[in-house]
Design a protein that fits this description.
The protein is an alpha/beta fold. The protein has helices at residues 4-15, 38-48, 79-90, 97-110, 127-133, 137-149, 172-180, 206-217, and strands at residues 18-20, 27-30, 71-76, 119-122, 158-160, 183-185, 194-202, 222-230. The protein has one domain (56-230): Rossmann fold (3-Layer(aba) Sandwich), CATH 3.40.50. The strands form 3 sheets. A 4-stranded parallel beta sheet has the order 3-8-7-4, sandwiched between helices. A two-stranded antiparallel ribbon has the order 1-2. It has a two-stranded antiparallel sheet with strand order 5-6. The longest helix has 14 residues, at 97-110. The radius of gyration is 17 Å and the shape is globular. The termini are far apart.
Amino acid sequence: MINWGRWQDVLADFLFPAAVCPLCGTPGKYTRSLPWCGACEAARQREAAEEPSRDNPLSGSGIEKPAFQQAIHTAPYLGVTQAAIRQLKYHNGKFLAPRLAELMLEKIRENGEFAACEAVVPVPLTPEKEAQRGYNQSLLLAREIARGLGIPCLPDALCRVEDTLSQTRLNRTERLANVAEAFAPGRADVRGKTLLLTDDVLTTGATAEACSRALLKAGARAVYVVTAAAAGFHRPDSEV
Ligand SMILES: [Zn+2]
């Protein structure tokens, strides 16, 4: 089957390559497969190599054992990775999704347990937020990852049932309570399936936990989690 979405991307890159690095402004020719400059990529690799400050993604949340099997990410949420995710989410940086997804695919392929995943599920936004932004960044990542793994993407596996308060103003415990009831099983049939939940950033783990619980409630066999970055890592000199 011809994948017209991919051909449109290739054509768009050919006709309209970005003229400056979207992260630092260095002039050049940037495409979806290599959307930022060499200096930014070198910095990203240094940041990604840093050890996480916590092992348990749910530490401090009050949850002893997460509902998901394992959560992996490409880098701490700082520096270049943070800048790329902010572009993706808040500045219409949709062209950054394929590269971020490729980095997530590298992590997935390094981890043998993730080979059990049979479908990719994006974390849904509220309809209001998706309408406002024009797209769901988690869905953009999920589609690319599903394509890379050769498994289906199930955007309808979850639905967001209520508009939660802005998470950034809440502390860890409040976030967890706020998000716990925000997701419900959607229309897609996930019974017996091992799923790969995809999001841009894992912050407290509350969203991943709530989504995993909803998917397991809908009959999923198991849930694994991949995000582009994980917060909770702190290096004062790199905070923007
Ligand atoms: Zn750059």
